[in-house]
Amino acid sequence: MNLKNLRAFLHVMDEGALVAASEKMHLSQPAVSRLIHLLEEEVGTKLFYRDQKTLAPTPEAELFYPEAQRVIAAVDDFPELFRQLRTNSLVPLRIISQMRSANGLVIPALVKFAHRFPEIRTTLDIHPRRELGRRVQQDKFDLGVYVVPMQVVGVELVERRETRLHVLLPKGHPLAERPLLTPADMENERYVALRRGLMAREAVDRALARSGDTLEIFHEVSSTNAALRMVAGGIGFTFSDPTVLDPGFREKVVLVPWEPEIRMDLGLYAPKNQSQHEATSDFVACLHEVWDEQVGRSGPKILENGR
User: Fold this and answer.
1) pTM above 0.90, yes or no
2) Exposure winner among 86, 186, 226, 264, fewest CB in 10 A?
3) In this predicted structure, what is the pLDDT of residue 135?
4) What is the CATH number of the domain that holds 12?
């Protein structure tokens, strides 16, 4: 369908007269009349009743009018659409993360990012580490946030940040003011442990085995979030790090350094051989800010693969 014919139709409908429509289009009246006639031939129906001075719309024209408006509006929006496509503002920044890092690190960084770049869309998918390989094969992504190490074909570690597990206690606990805690300090405390197979639990068990210490497990749960909530409720202690705690927990719990040291590094992962979203580096900057706010600037950043 000829767009110029459609514009002539809309101008006649809006102005109610051929003279005004011709002025809008910078055409002669006969030229506009010819465009209307061509449109009528194209759609196969009469759109105006004609007399010497006016064109009165037919019922068919009244029904056709909103559809013609929609088509022309869409065409007029094309320049803005292509501008957005060029700047990636219609293409979402795709983030994947494990639950451990989502609430305390990734989501606060996404909030910062959204305030700074309100025109950029985002998606966040939260998957357990064990599902990441399958998800990578099925879905494309721009950045993944997972505990190191992680060996997945087609994914590369681009940045690693060092963090250590602390003892997590409810605020007001007698041990919360200690500068350092050891296994001996926790002998009479109820340990809320993650189940075997989860990385944090395995890291704790390895550290205790190396030092020859043990901790009696009183409660056992299958998720970090459950352990945090139980500690916040005052029924024991667990192990965590600052990047796990979302703002809602920070007023209820305290992190105390632990000896022997338990290290759990956090990695930023990117798909190999895939161009990244233009805003990926801006989101990473927001991640760094949240990290510095929660962990402090002393934690080293280690770049991998020369990136």
Assistant:
1) no
2) 86
3) 61
4) 1.10.10.10
Residue 298 lies in a domain: yes
- Tell me what pLDDT residue 82 has: 66
The answer to whether residue 215 sits within a structural domain is: yes
Domain of residue 232, CATH code: 3.40.190.10
Q: d(Cα 178, Cα 172) in Å, to the nearest integer?
A: 12
Whole-angstrom distance, CA of residue 29 vs CA of residue 40? 17
The reply to whether 134 falls in a domain is yes
Q: How many CB atoms lie within 10 A of CB 165?
A: 21
Per-residue model confidence (pLDDT) at position 145: 92
With a cut of 50, which residues of the chain have pLDDT below it?
297-307
Q: Round to whole Å and give the CA distance between 23 and 14.
A: 13
CA distances from 15 to 24, 56, 87, 186, 245 (A): 9, 11, 37, 83, 62
**Cβ–Cβ < 8 Å for 249, 230:** no
- The amino acid at residue 238 is T
**237 within domain boundaries:** yes
- How far lies 153's CA from each of 91, 283, 287, in Å? 25, 24, 25
Token pair, residue 257, equals: 């350094």
pLDDT at residue number 299 = 40
Number of Cβ within 10 Å of residue 75's Cβ equals 12
